[in-house]
Amino acid sequence: MLSEIVTREKNAETKEQQVTLQERVSELIWSAVGGVYLQTIEPDEALVELAMMCHSKKWKMVAWDFVRGLNSNGFEIDNAVAATAGDPLAVLTAIPSLANAEGITVIVLRGFDHFLSRTDVVLTLDRQLAVAKGLQAFVVILAPVVRLPLELERRFVVIEHSLPSPERLAQCLCETTTSDEELPHGSQLADVLDAAMGLTRHEAEAAFRLSLFRNGVITPEAIWQIKTQLLMNRGRPDGRIRASEMTLQNESLDDGECV
To answer: How far apart are CA 37 and CA 7, in angstroms?
Structure first.
């Protein structure tokens, strides 16, 4: 039953919507863009997908964030290069030494938008993007909002990390429950997936678990209630609620499903 509903939901999507993050990023890298700016509110999920992409294509991937510095993902890097925590300029300067002489290298900079107001960072990144391209190294910035200065706007292609598909939500649903009795059945299963659309994976997991705690089973009514509370408590990173979420919320209110 679960697989049938997921298949039906996926077939209803357009071809453009079915393109995965891995496919979109790999296409941009193959087209030799200077950099990719991935707007995401689920950076951990995005990192997992990018790592899967690089593994499947045998590309080298290194990831950086301000607190932990470089994560080589199993590739050997110089100790001096690895010591980049707390220093965004250091990781940019290290880009040539991170490049893989035998193929493509993807350098993921998590939360790098915080440093794009610094003149030294902007100028260094602009210069290093040109250097990296010649070495088959490509920069991917992960950030919840787009903060590209004018100097870098034409250097990056901005794409959005889509929220979980019905298939991913169904997988999350199965991972959350421990028995068949906890799962919704029949039309309620489709209604639960519809209600969870527009939530992040972490939000969906929390909503499913809370519904189980309250009702002993996952119900669409409970998911709508929890979802409405989430949307009321916080907007998206740009301060707005997505149109798709507003549509789903309004439909539930019109149908009397959400209180």
So the answer is: 31
